[in-house]
Please model this.
Amino acid sequence: MKEYVNINKNIYEAPIVGLFLAMNSGAIDACTFLQHGEVFVGLQTGNFILFGISLSKLAWWQSLRYLFSILMFALGVVFIKHLQASRYRERNIKRIILIIDLLLLVVVGILANFISDILIVGLLAIAAAAQFQEFKLMNGNPFNPLMMTGNLRKLLDNFYSFLRFKNVKARRIAIDTCLVLFCFILGSLIMGLLINIFDKYAIFLNVIIISIVLLVTNQKFKV
Model:
């Protein structure tokens, strides 16, 4: 269990950080889908599909909701790419991005009943894009907190490599990826339950998750 809390090289690649980020991704998409017009902010593949279906039904307003999320996600990626090209150190950038995510989530949580669904989706799409663009490694291996199709393929690919070729590294990757999938589902499950109790304020689950990540990465682990 200790290996999921600590890491020898980079605390931001620690599995516990990746698993909380996966939980955050599942929760935030569950929130916007259930509460804000059945639109995703991280799973943009779903938005592209729903955008096409809406166009086929001539549902112009609904199609614009999906398109707006896609465009704001793209804006978020460009913004973070610009930040990455700055003179900040890598760890400072990651912390800045987590703080930006936290601020966006707090704003949405406080103003959830006062601003439109489309604006909420736009702000959360930027937050999702920021996380997706910056956090790409877990335990030194490629990591994706949003795209579960790719994670499912990676899980099966590495599980097969372990069974067939006894590849120890593949076993470690398969276990990590399985946990990412589990935490993504767990995030959406918890969000679904909390929405029944707290309605639009359930987004504060994401505030708690990102706050935990900030606390974990602020610890003085050996690097």
Notes: The mean pLDDT is 92. The first strand starts at residue 137 and ends at 138. Residues 53 and 142 are 32 Å apart (CA to CA). Helices lie at 15-35, 44-56, 60-84, 90-111, 117-134, 148-165, 168-198, 204-217.
